[in-house]
Amino acid sequence: MSQRLSISATIFFVLAMALGLYFAFAAVQGPSGILRRIQIEAETQDLIVERDSLRADVDRMQNLTRRMSDEYLDIDLLDERAREVLGYVRSDEIILR
């Protein structure tokens, strides 16, 4: 003898299944789902690399600024910058471009 589910039990089962599928989809694809978390972690790693690169640039610029300051003057750096900016060349030098 086979028993059939009542209409209310069938509706309840279908609604429970639909809600379960919705929440499973939201857990994977939603705005705070697994895929979004993976994407955010990858972006975070890219931004960390960019931050470290920018910090290195800032450190280099601070070093150059300090070396060109009144308290500490690096003659070689001053000579290099003057040659590059002003286009100075010694008479015994050969320029290669």
Automatic annotation (TrEMBL):
InterPro entries: FtsL/DivIC (IPR007060). This is Septum formation initiator family protein. Pfam families: DivIC. It comes from the Bacteria. It comes from Paracoccus stylophorae.
